[in-house]
Amino acid sequence: MDIRYRLYPYPVLAADMDDYIDSSFTFAIVSEKKIHEIKLSFRLNLKNDGLADLIQSGKAEYLIHIECPRTCYRHAIKTTDYDYDYCIPERKLNGRVSICAFIVAKQNLPAYYNHAFNTDYEGLSFSIDRGGILAIGGQYTFNVIKDMEDLARIPSIFTICKRAADSDNGMEIDMDGNKIAVTLSNDSFCRYKNLASELKYQPAFHSMLIMPALIYVFETLRREGVDNYNDKRWFIAISKTFSKYNVKLNAETLDNSPSYTFAQKILDMPVDRALNALAEWSDDESEDE
Fold it and tell me: Less packed terminus of the chain by CB within 10 Å, N or C?
């Protein structure tokens, strides 16, 4: 969304308009790239007592509009806080991201008046509908450059193999080699081999096999420490992925968040991707009927 200043039938506070005196509304953003998500920290700066009173009394609110044209991602944040943090999954953004800030009416304002109106509006009040724009804080843009190398690298440090002696023990995980070995029963391994070449099944495999194995790996590292494994190729690959987001794979990091959180983020939310894939398969089957 690009701001296009237009004529309003009532005064609007904006940098390129002179409807108000001794007033301003701006915003600042700090963007931080985390593990497969972008954290946006907003600071909204309002200098106008009348608008601040409307927000405090629940009659108006800040509205932050986020849009990425390439991915068709759109989201509107409504808040009354001047400091606000918001995280967006990285897969939802690609290329140019545009962010605009507004103050909008939360309810109808039948007789809106502000003491900082320009003298041209002295003594006048205005009827503003719910959702009407009261102030425009400007626009901020940044670019998200996709790097799918990490997502491709992590599954490659796993090997799916067949158990030497068939049993009913289910899936087993071995971290002692340079690759993390996920061992399946004979029947399960045969089914996996028959389906593994189909790209459409990869999100499901990431969710069913790779993610549980990663959770087990992180729990083992948390319990036993990283020193016993830091020379393994799989450990080095995961560490490099963490380091791209300024995170160290060490005991302190592992203690700060649950293992399933790291596993989901490092695989770019595999459960969501698997469910989306299942929904697409279901839609395709419905169209074929």
Answer: C
Predicted confidence (pLDDT) per residue in 227-236, tens digit: 989 888 899 8
The residue whose two tokens read 């495999």 is 205
The encoded tokens of residue 227 equal 């020193």
Rounded CA separation 271/279 (Å): 12
> Does residue 3 carry a pLDDT above 50?
yes
Q: CB under 8 Å, gap of 24 or more: what pairs does 199-205 form?
A: 200/277, 200/281, 201/277, 202/155, 203/270, 203/273, 203/274, 203/276, 203/277, 204/274, 204/277, 204/278
pTM (predicted TM-score)? 0.59
CATH for 24-144 is 2.60.40.10
Write out pLDDT tens, residues 133-144: 999 999 999 887
Closest CA to 78 of 63, 92, 96: 63
Residue 184 CA: distances (Å) to CA of 112, 133, 163, 195, 241: 69, 59, 6, 14, 27
Domain with CATH 2.60.40.10 in the chain: 24-144
